[in-house]
Write a structure and sequence with these properties.
9 strands; 254 residues; Alpha-Beta Plaits; 26% helix; alpha+beta; 2 domains
Length: 254
């Protein structure tokens, strides 16, 4: 039996899903994708994602890999069209391509980039896609605190408790808020992220923007390694996984 490995690139609106990963008695992105792939390729398909997003979190770029047996002919565009026809409108396949049998969508990724969107005025077209926040924020102070995070690698204070990780160390590469029309967007890039990490970071930086804590307090929070000292997690609706970089794509961007 000849096995071939494929990468699939998708995007999805996470509003109606209980996150990426398959769960009992819940609709997830992975369960919908695996079902569509199994129907299209006429064999059982189990995907491995590049990470996991929580309930309500979106992705404009997400990769997964899967194996197929005894595939003699494969046409990428035909696969994209066919699989999309089997998926709900909230999930879109962008590309499917064969890779080396040892390639791994999760462990081969060298960086991941998230964006978190905040808007200040009620907007029906941003419901479930951005967080409505009605109070003033000090953008320069928030960015000063975000820059301070770059001095650290252990982000235990921003991790959901009782997660199955060997380490809470992450290499943070970029963290900054930018003003956009009627709101803010926070962009953060790292080699890996802990469960709930981005939403906890944003919640803590919001405390700085409100004036509840000073920038130096953020350093104390990180150094404490205690989740109870950090800010509350902001709502999932504003969070997007926007880019996964692999060694070849990373070189192309440099």
């Amino acid at each position: 039996m000849l096995l071939k490995r494929f990468f699939i690139e998708i995007s999805y609106d996470g509003t109606d899903f209980h996150g990426w990963q398959i769960q009992p008695n819940a609709i997830t992105v992975q369960s919908c994708l695996d079902s569509a792939l199994s129907i299209f390729f006429r064999q059982e398909v189990n995907t491995i994602g590049c990470g996991r997003t929580d309930t309500g979190v979106h992705a404009t770029q997400f990769f997964a890999h899967f194996d197929l047996k005894d595939i003699t002919e494969f046409k990428s565009q035909a696969a994209v069209t066919g699989i999309n026809a089997l998926l709900p409108f909230s999930i879109a396949v962008k590309n499917v391509f064969e890779v080396d049998v040892e390639a791994n969508s999760r462990f081969d990724a060298v960086s991941r980039t998230y964006k978190y969107y905040i808007h200040f005025n009620k907007d029906p077209f941003k419901v479930n896609r951005s967080w409505l926040y009605k109070w003033p924020l000090d953008l320069p102070k928030m960015n000063e605190a975000a820059a301070a995070l770059m001095d650290y690698t252990d982000f235990s204070c921003f991790s959901k408790s009782k997660t199955q990780t060997f380490t809470n160390n992450c290499k943070l590469m970029y963290a900054k808020f930018e003003a956009i029309e009627d709101g803010l967007v926070f962009t953060v890039k790292a080699d890996r992220f802990l469960r709930n990490m981005v939403r906890a970071i944003v919640g803590t930086l919001i405390m700085v923007g409100k004036g509840d804590i000073e920038v130096e307090k953020v350093r104390e929070i990180v150094e404490s390694k205690s989740r109870s000292n950090a800010g509350q997690s902001v709502p999932a609706c504003g969070l997007y996984l926007v880019h996964i970089a692999y060694p070849l794509t990373e070189k192309a961007e440099m």
